[in-house]
Amino acid sequence: MSHALTLALPRARAFSPVLPVVAVVALLTLPVAQDGDGGAGPADAASALLVLYCAIRQLRKRRRPLTPTAAVVLGLPVVGLAVAAMGASSASAGIGGMGRYLQIFVLVPAAVLLLVRDRADFRVLAWSFVALAGWQGAVGVHQYLTATGASYQGEEIRAVGTFGPQDVMGMATVVSFGLVCALGLALGPGTARRRALAAGCALALLAPLALSFSRGAWIATAVACALQLALAGVRRALRIGAAVAAAGVVLIGGLGVGSTVLQDRIDSITQVTDAPDQSVVDRYSLWAAAVGIWREHPLTGVGLKDFPEYRDGHASLALSAGSDTDGAGAGFRRQALLSPHNMYLLVLAEQGLIGLVALAGGWLALLVCALRGLGRAHRSGTGLDCALIGCGLLIWQLIDFGYADIGGPSTVLTAVCFGLVAWWALAGADGTRAGAPAPVPRPLPEQAATR
User: Fold this and answer.
1) What is d(CA 410, CA 83) in angstroms, rounded to the nearest whole number?
2) What is the maximum span of the chain, computed from C-alpha positions, in angstroms?
């Protein structure tokens, strides 16, 4: 046993810079308090400590700060945030909203970028995503099978994991991230055992993703995984696509896993204009309200966290007062619709064109750099799994932002996701290290002679 401990300690020391990031991910396994207001949780507190740890480590190690490119790409959102914070209806709203945006899109991603040293660290974080998805997915499947999940069409069968009915997208987001990471690991280099394990995890995560009944997560995951397969190679895409189709037939057709409810949910995707349900009507009404707000304040928006104050003045009468949540250990609750459930429209309404261009411009720059790195990975034959994970996670997030926005306990995982993407796009693709020690200046010839 002492010999095993001796072997484990060097590995722990080797991974020490990235372990705090893994701890943030691990804290998302804890149950969320169902009587809370959806504020900061343990993982959010840990993310603040993560940023502090990274800053102290950079100072003690005399590490070089972010490269100019990384600083510009990650710092772009600050421009729109500063303007929108000054235009907020109250100082508390402006400061609180700016702090949340900085946490998710600037500070935590920058910390992850600096703490991930190489592709081995990147893979450790990717596997932590898969492990978290496996845990939350197992809880979600159990909720469906035992009818202890969130309420859906009068039955408590919706898989939400430990996030509860107030964050119904939480488990779907976690499982989707895990599935994208598992697929990337399965398509990349490595031992046959590791790739088989990753492929098995990806197939297993299909069930909880389906039982989340999240149409937005389904669409984003299908597109992201299809693009991962296409970017990895046509032959692989065909083989794995056939395996996924077979797994879907077994799970839904053969075993009858939620077949009727799933079919109704899938059909509702194509009925958004013919016979939309109330959730779709609310979503369209909120989108229209956000566009109306933006038209009145096109450049700077109405200010951070001010969408609810302007919503009723621009929404149609079809908008309901809120959404009903119940089940999964929580009582009935009427949850107010405080955002347009579209990240782009939320930024457009509250931060205007300045904020949207700054925020989305950084995401577009990350996507371009990540895809360029993918091309280099193909040519060099190394790092393909990291490339596919980085590109897949970003593509998933950009698509999902068309159906959701930030909010809830699971949002901190989005920040870690952007950090992983930023590392691959800005450092990992070309083999550089964002937090490398600052070079020691070489003495001039005359100085060396005097020594």
Assistant:
1) 27
2) 86
In 147-214, which ranges are continuous DSSP H helix?
168-187, 192-204, 206-211
DSSP labels for 362-381? HHHHHHHHHHHHHHHHHHHT
CA quadruple 131, 261, 414, 223: dihedral sign: positive
Angle at 261 between CA 255 and CA 263, to 5 degrees: 85
HEC per residue, 258-283: CHHHHHHHHHHHCCCCCCCCHHHHHH
Give the SS3 label for residue 323.
Answer: strand
Task: Measure the CA–CA gap between 184 and 199, rounded to whole angstroms.
Answer: 9
Q: How does pLDDT run across 352-382, given as a tens digit for each residue? A: 999 999 999 999 999 999 999 998 888 887 8
Alpha carbon separation from 163 to 105, 169, 205, 216, 336 (Å, rounded):
22, 9, 17, 18, 18
Closest residue by Cα to residue 150 from 133, 135, 129, 172:
172
pLDDT beneath 50, residues of the chain: 1-10, 12-13, 255, 435-451
Q: What's the CA gap between 116 and 351, in Å, rounded?
A: 31
Scanning the structure block, which residue is given the tokens 């009427």?
A: 334
